[in-house]
Amino acid sequence: MNIRVKQKRLYALMKFFVVFGALFIVFYIGAKPTVDDFNPSVSVACSYACDALVVINLVLIFAYYTKYGKCDVVIGNISDETEDCGYYFINSEVMPQEEYISCINNKLCENMFSVKKDFELDELDFSFYADKRKEFVYCSRIDKLSRGDIIAYLDTVINDITYHTLKRQGNGVLLFVTDDAEEGAVSLSKLIVNLGRKNQIRLAIAIAQPQNGKLFFLGNQQTKRQQMIVNYAMLSALPIEDRLKAVDKLDFQAALSEKLNTATVSDLTADIINIH
Description:
Number of helices: 9
Largest sheet: 8 strands, mixed
Order of helices and strands: HHHEHEEEEHEEHEEEHHH
Radius of gyration: 24 Å
Structural class: alpha/beta
Low-confidence stretches: none
C-alpha cells in the first residue's frame, strides 16, 4: 500500500468522525431535554459518547497532521502528475517554431497582455515576456531542451520575479518551445513551482513541440495556470477536448508512481525535486 493510499484512508477516517461527531453532538444538545425526560440512563450514555467522539476526533486530527502535515501538498502534487495523461496536442495545424511563437504573441496581445519580445536575463535568451495584472508568461525557444536548461531558466525566472518585477502574487507560465525535449526535461514538465509562505506566486512549466503538435504540462487541475496554458499555448479553450489528450502515459510517470509506492514521509519532505 503506497503512501498516497494510506493518506487518503486516514483522511477519510478523520473526515468521517469529524462530521459524524459534529452532527451527533449538535443533535444531542438539541434533543437533551427530551432524552432526559425519556430515560436518564440514555442521556448519560449520550453524554459519554459525545466526550468519546471529541477525544477520537482530536486523536485522529493530531495523528493525520503529525504524519502528513508537512508532505500533504507534495503527495497531492505528485499524484496529480501520475494521474494526468502523458501529453496534449496543440489545437492547430503543425507549424514552425517562429510561427507558433508569433501566434501566441498575437493571442496575448488580443487579451490585453503587455508583451516584451527578444530579451536576455542572466545571459539566457527569452523569446518574450507577457504580463497582465497577476498573470505572466515567460517563453524561450531552445532547439534541444534538457533538464539542465529548465532548471537554469527556472532559477533565472524566479530571480526576476522576486528581485526585478517584484511580484508578490500571481500565476505564471514558463513555456519552452523546442524541436526535441529530452526525457529529463519532460519529467519536469508537470511541476508547479510555489513561491512565498502561502504560495502567493505559482509558476507552471510547459513544453511545446509545434513541429509534431505535442504539448507537455499538468492539465488535469482546474487552475488559472491550466487556463493560461490551454488558451495561449494549446490555442484552445476549457474544458479540454478528449481529442487533444494523449492516452499514453510517459515513462517518468510510471517511475514516479513506483517511487511513490516505496516513499516515506521523510523521503518526500527531504527533497521534493529529486523525487523526480
